[in-house]
């Protein structure tokens, strides 16, 4: 019978044997897989592990702080934040095509990660939170050709170019087993049940050109949506829920003033594997609360729309 604490013991022994006295680097996104991989490897080899978190400026509200608080403060891991937001935004300036955005974000990520790793000195292993389904479906992780970028982030040219050996302690596990392992390692429910978040982040949720101002508006609206989804208990019932910034201005009234501001779309879907998805039938009262709060609290937004499209033919993301 399968016992999680025995599994942890064996996994730790294996990591120690593989790594010896060498150093390991891990690109931490804050997602379920990389978080569990980090906690496991840290338990095995402590300070021989360094985590690198790339702040690409396309993160959600408080995302960087919560990742830093958990891994740097709480777990006391060696942790480097690559503060690269201005670089990403500079490279994305004027770009509107979704696939070009993805390419630029992926390429810049590799550059920043590479440079950060070089600054650490001698490193022998690159750790990754690759799961069993990633191994067998090496072409596309979730049926989205765009997610090749994700696999690019995970297993792309990095190790070869940097002459690193791969350390993939979750390679034999499915998602539910990774969550059970994470729980055993003391990771919080919130971390283990986070919705999937694309590698290009808010870069593909600001439709059209990405600017700091648009990202800031989106971050505020998205944070309200997530907060309300969590406090109502609906967060755990859906596959993904997020806000999208639309580069459209519409007319509104605020007091005696006429406004001319942007539109936020709410994307809330149910799915089993992201290959197909249905828009989630959320209670109207909750939607009303989310809409009112976004319009009242987020400067620059005067209209909220609900996306009621299913996949296929619509995709989950808007870009
Ligand atoms: P779509 O929009 O194709 O998304 O229905 C299916 C799932 O994949 C995620 N997604 C991405 N993940 N890089 C990623 O790492 C990407 O470029 C990307 N595009 C979409 C999306 O959030 C959903 O879970």
From TrEMBL:
Q: Which organism is it from?
A: Intestinicryptomonas porci
- Reaction catalysed? XMP + L-glutamine + ATP + H2O = GMP + L-glutamate + AMP + diphosphate + 2 H(+)
This protein's assembly is summarised as: Homodimer.
Q: Which UniProt keywords apply?
A: ATP-binding, Glutamine amidotransferase, GMP biosynthesis, Ligase, Nucleotide-binding, Purine biosynthesis
Looking at the record's lineage, which domain of life comes first?
Bacteria
Which top EC class is named for this enzyme in its record?
A: ligase
Q: In which pathway does it act?
A: Purine metabolism; GMP biosynthesis; GMP from XMP (L-Gln route): step 1/1
Protein name per its UniProtKB record: GMP synthase [glutamine-hydrolyzing]
Give start and end of each GMPS ATP-PPase domain: 2-194
Name the positions where ATP binds: 29-35
| Physiological role | Catalyzes the synthesis of GMP from XMP.
Q: What is the lineage of its organism?
A: Bacteria, Pseudomonadati, Verrucomicrobiota, Opitutia, Opitutales
Q: Which GO terms describe its molecular function?
A: GMP synthase (glutamine-hydrolyzing) activity
Entry's EC annotation: 6.3.5.2
